[in-house]
Amino acid sequence: MTGLDLRIHWRSMRIGVAGVGRIGTMHAGNLASLDAVDEVVLFDPVPGRAAAVAAQTGAKATAVDDLDALLQAGDGVLIATPTPTHPETIRRALSAGKPALCEKPIASDYAEMSALVDDIEASGVEVLVGFQRRFDPAVAELHRRIRADEVGKLYLVRSTGNDAEPPDFGYLPASGGIFRDLLIHDLDAVPWLVGEPVVEVYASGSVLVDQAFADADDVDNAVVMLKFAGGAHAVLVGGRHDPLGYDHRIEVLGSKDSLAVGVDSRTPLTSLEPDGPKAGPDAYPGFPERFHRAYLNEMAVFVDVVAGRTQNPSPARDSLTSLRLALACDESRRSGVPVKIEQEVVV
Ligand SMILES: NC(=O)c1ccc[n+]([C@@H]2O[C@H](COP(=O)([O-])OP(=O)(O)OC[C@H]3O[C@@H](n4cnc5c(N)ncnc54)[C@H](O)[C@@H]3O)[C@@H](O)[C@H]2O)c1
């Protein structure tokens, strides 16, 4: 296809959004803010919800009554429905030949996800997974510098991911636990940054925030150690309560440089050094604020993938890697010993 053909074909770009609850509403607003998007078409099975969100999203947004109409109207579809509906909704997008961006996780268990990934790849239709760290401009720049050998030989990666407040306790039993629910984002992002197979996982956790986590057979603070094939280690920490706000940072130390993302004037961390940063009232309250630029960029990249202007930076197969690592974390946390990743995880 020539550049001229592209311009004619994408004279009018329409993106469908399936599911306009918390995250779907945010994505719809971000899509509507993009110059490259002419129309945002919304569907939600709750009567009146899509029309109400369309009204608040602005002139570019319209509502339709069913998924078939959405798939027909959109050049691509963003899937922000509850997790159990993801496999079927993705397969409907594949049948319609419409590229999709699906919120994580694309499926709840490994066997289901594995079959789905095979179907996605057999279809030839692009499906991006909404792991927003990959789309964060600073994380993407870190990825670029590592690939460009500007960091040198990697020694250590450290990531921190603390929620400000625990989720509703009713959410816990179906959440999959802290590794599949919270740390899954970093189990995706850190191996993606390092670019090597993980060969060993060790995980530990404690209940320090609320007994409800123990009642759900979960922990509320966890530490993960990943060992990579080249010998570098990563330490991932995550927790369900941070009194100062939502804190996500990644630090990378290599033979040529030492870099951090997520360290800025809104980081909820107080340095005790006289000239160090102090957490203030504008510290990030939650993930939507911390990852605002990432979510916006995620939509811009999705539109570029739909238009054939760029490659998919978050393919479905990578979700198998992070899920497998999360399951290994569960096993290690319960057994108290490291788990070898027998078949190398290819990133
Ligand atoms: N990437 C992230 O940071 C992030 C953050 C939050 C949620 N999520 C993921 O996003 C997904 C949605 O989470 P949420 O918190 O917005 O949930 P939500 O319950 O607030 O919204 C889901 C919406 O989907 C609608 N819906 C239900 N079945 C549908 C169907 N078959 N077709 C179309 N719409 C349907 C519901 O009526 C509801 O409006 C989940 O998979 C979750 O894991 C990702």
TrEMBL record:
Sorted alphabetically, which InterPro entries does this protein's record hold?
Gfo/Idh/MocA-like_OxRdtase_N, GFO_IDH_MocA-like_dom, NAD(P)-bd_dom_sf
Q: Which UniProt keywords apply?
A: Oxidoreductase
Q: Which domain of life is it from?
A: Bacteria
- Gfo/Idh/MocA-like oxidoreductase N-terminal domain mapped to chain residues: 13-131
- Note the Gene3D superfamilies from the entry: Dihydrodipicolinate Reductase, domain 2 (3.30.360.10), NAD(P)-binding Rossmann-like Domain (3.40.50.720)
List, for all copies, the residue spans of the domain called GFO/IDH/MocA-like oxidoreductase.
Answer: 140-259
Matching Pfam families, A to Z?
A: GFO_IDH_MocA, GFO_IDH_MocA_C3
**Which family does this protein fall into?**
Belongs to the Gfo/Idh/MocA family.
Q: What is this protein called?
A: Streptomycin biosynthesis protein StrI
Lineage, top ranks: Bacteria, Bacillati, Actinomycetota, Actinomycetes, Pseudonocardiales
